[in-house]
Design goal:
This protein has a single domain, classed as NAD(P)-binding Rossmann-like Domain (Rossmann fold, 3-Layer(aba) Sandwich). The radius of gyration is 18 Å and the shape is globular. It contains eight helices and nine strands. It is α/β, with parallel strands linked by helices and 280 residues long. Strands 4-6-7-8 form a four-stranded parallel β-sheet, sandwiched between helices. The two termini are 15 Å apart.
Length: 280
């Protein structure tokens, strides 16, 4: 099951896994994109079920999850992929935008996992995949709320992994931390050193995520340079900040526009009623 699965890497992962014989369940709030994504999978010979679901609505998540279980049984792999970004300095974000970021990117993880984890525990089998971000490891300008939500996602995955290990449960977790992906969600971002920190192509990212799931890889970070952020933590803060600035972390979002169909006339990400969701 893939949240935010009607577009971006969510849709691509669904297509790849459907070709491998999986029954794909897509959740999204965009009904038009849901129908389009389902048609693409069906036309390719895959089996797909779609549900319009706002993952910030806890009770709706539980009700929709129950419908899924009644139709197809237990979910074997849950991929929490839905996410949003405001792309503004913290002080320019409205209360509603900040709340929406945390509701979609963080609280939505809790509700979906709570909905499907009990069955995984009972079966002693399952795989929870969390799409975090390189922004879940390193802070950046114009991403304070997004960084906070993705740091939370990283910690959520790590704690769950420890919980399962401590109790010798056969439930896997995988955390995904990519740099900016060329899905449109981060349209306008730039990288100072494309060879070191490239803007990632969504089809490549989707394939690597599916491969990581198949091999039960606990952590996938892209590109490799992002791993160095852990080493950099041992440096003085002033040095850490200088390196981040030199690599362009502080300027990458300067020309951020966002996804075309999700932005308002002033070029900002539009969070219509605080609950807009996009994937990847």
């Amino acid at each position: 099951m893939i949240t935010g699965g009607a577009s971006g890497i969510g849709k691509l992962m669904g297509q790849i896994m459907a070709k491998k014989g999986a029954t794909i369940i897509i959740w999204d709030i965009d009904e038009k994109k849901l129908k389009s994504a389902a048609k693409e999978i069906k036309d390719a010979g895959g089996n797909v079920i779609t549900n319009k679901c706002d993952i910030t609505d806890r009770k709706l998540v539980y009700r929709t999850a129950q419908k899924v279980k009644e139709k197809v049984g237990n979910v074997d792999i849950l991929i929490n992929n839905a996410g949003i970004v405001t792309g503004k300095p913290f002080w320019e974000c409205t209360d509603e935008e900040l709340q929406a970021t945390m509701d979609v990117n963080t609280m939505g993880l809790f509700w979906t996992v709570k909905a499907f984890l009990p069955d995984m525990i009972e079966a002693n089998s399952g795989h929870l995949v969390t799409i975090s971000s390189a922004a879940g490891m390193v802070g950046a300008t114009r991403l304070t709320d997004y960084n906070a939500s993705k740091f939370a996602a990283f910690g959520f995955d790590e704690s769950l992994r420890m919980e399962f290990r401590r109790r010798k449960m056969n439930i896997r977790t995988t955390i995904i931390c990519p740099y900016f992906i060329n899905t449109g969600m981060f349209k306008g971002v730039k990288t100072r050193f494309p060879r070191l920190l490239p803007i990632l192509e969504e089809d490549v990212v989707a394939r690597k995520i599916v491969k990581a799931i198949e091999s039960n890889k606990a952590r996938l970070i892209m590109p490799g340079l992002v791993y160095s952020s852990w080493i950099m933590r041992y440096l003085p803060v002033s040095v850490f900040d200088w390196i981040s600035s030199f690599l362009g972390v502080s300027t990458a979002m300067d020309d951020f526009i966002g996804r075309e169909n999700d932005v308002s006339p002033n070029g900002r990400q539009k969070l219509a009623d605080g609950k807009a969701q996009a994937s990847g």
